[in-house]
Amino acid sequence: MTAALLQVRNLGKSFGGVKAVDGISFDLAPGELLALIGPNGAGKSTTFNMVHGQLRPDQGSILLQGQELAGRSPRAIWRQGVGRTFQIAETFASLTAVENVQMALLSQDHLLFSMWRRAADHRRDDALALLDQVGMKRQADRPCNVLAYGDVKRVELAVAMANSPKLLLMDEPTAGMAPQERNNLMALTKELVLHQGMAVLFTEHSMDVVFAYADRMIVLARGRLIAEGQPSAIRDHPQVQEVYFGTGQTFEKAPA
Ligand code: ADP
Ligand code: MG
After folding, report:
1. Residue 38 CA: which ligand 1 atom is closest?
2. What residue owns the CA closest to ligand 1's atom 25?
3. Angle between helices 149-161 and 179-196 (to 10 degrees)
4. For an engineered disulfide with 49, which of 54, 109, 143, 204 has Cβ 3.0 to 4.6 Å away?
5. Nearest-angstrom CA–CA distance, 229 and 215
6. Which of the residue ranges 11-25, 48-62, 200-214, 232-246 would you say has the lowest mean pLDDT?
7. To which CATH superfamily is domain 1-81+165-256 assigned?
8. Do 67 and 155 form a contact (C-beta atoms < 8 A)?
């Protein structure tokens, strides 16, 4: 087995009396796509927010290649090599695809946003290479607000890749996408993972996507990790079926 890239141990966070995340542990290997699933309120977002630094854990450890991330700032964690996909904010939607990636490269190079006007040529070739990786080079000079939704998602992926992350966090990457677009985006993500040896931790509502693309899954319910394993094993796991039963969220294949 490959040595873990990420080791999460006994991670916990409470809000008032609610244990949003209650002592969970898991590993993530380089080149692995790990899905984090569970019903609403299970603690998925809280877990994500602790890994990328938005929230400080009450307990536990988050080791990236042996370095402790728990309690560090989002910026420090990002510099350690943890990237995440962001929705391109409205203010940046009028910028072109390549400009959005250039902005991410500026940030990586510790240049300030206020320098942007003077830095319009900043690493354009590198930005184009990143867009090429996601199949968006030909549309590089189109403003994001005229691109198809699935194409914007590709640009967002290129933005997240600008920092060459070792670990990429994706919170519901395919939300709002049509089934075909979903498959394209996840196939692309899988390709990038294989190509770069990066690891991906993602949450996802579409069980079709999870079962088709996750190498492994972890399942949360009420802050606890109740199951872990290959998609085929999770599908038939009695406790997992039980927590989803009656929530309106199911493992059934969604009608096309
Ligand atoms: P999920 O992403 O799996 O839907 P969350 O991590 O958002 O779950 O939430 C887990 C639990 O923690 C829920 O009971 C939620 O109400 C609670 N919670 C999450 N964030 C906060 C917060 N900032 N303040 C208070 N309670 C929160
Ligand atoms: Mg959530």
Report:
1. 3
2. 15
3. 20
4. 54
5. 9
6. 232-246
7. P-loop containing nucleotide triphosphate hydrolases (3.40.50.300)
8. no
